[in-house]
Amino acid sequence: MTNNKNNDNNTNSDNNSNNSNKPNNNNSENRKNYDKEIALELLTISKSDILSLATVITETTNPQLRELLKLQLTNSLNEHYSLSDIAVNKQWYNAFTNPEQQLKQDTNELQSLF
């Protein structure tokens, strides 16, 4: 009886390992969409951080604090440029198209999901 259970367990693990070795194109596409969503969310957060820093700098009266905030703003801008370059190069973000083209592209992407 014990041998049968071991054989059953081995068969199940063999089946599981066989399933994990099969290529899954849908999984790859999901990963690309996931990466795109993360990048676009990071861009949105980055823009918000830059706007907040710029606002705080204009309201700060302490010169040392203002300089520190300026350095942080410069770093944030550089990181934003790097991230936006990645998103543009991967065609996740089309900064150079007109609004009508962007809307058409977004509509097509949404329709492809259904």
TrEMBL record:
<dbReference type="Pfam" id="PF07875">
    <property type="entry name" value="Coat_F"/>
</dbReference>
<protein>
    <submittedName>
        <fullName>Spore coat protein</fullName>
    </submittedName>
</protein>
<keyword id="KW-0167">Capsid protein</keyword>
<keyword id="KW-0946">Virion</keyword>
<dbReference type="InterPro" id="IPR012851">
    <property type="entry name" value="Spore_coat_CotF-like"/>
</dbReference>
<feature type="compositionally biased region" description="Low complexity">
    <location>
        <begin position="1"/>
        <end position="28"/>
    </location>
</feature>
<feature type="region of interest" description="Disordered">
    <location>
        <begin position="1"/>
        <end position="33"/>
    </location>
</feature>
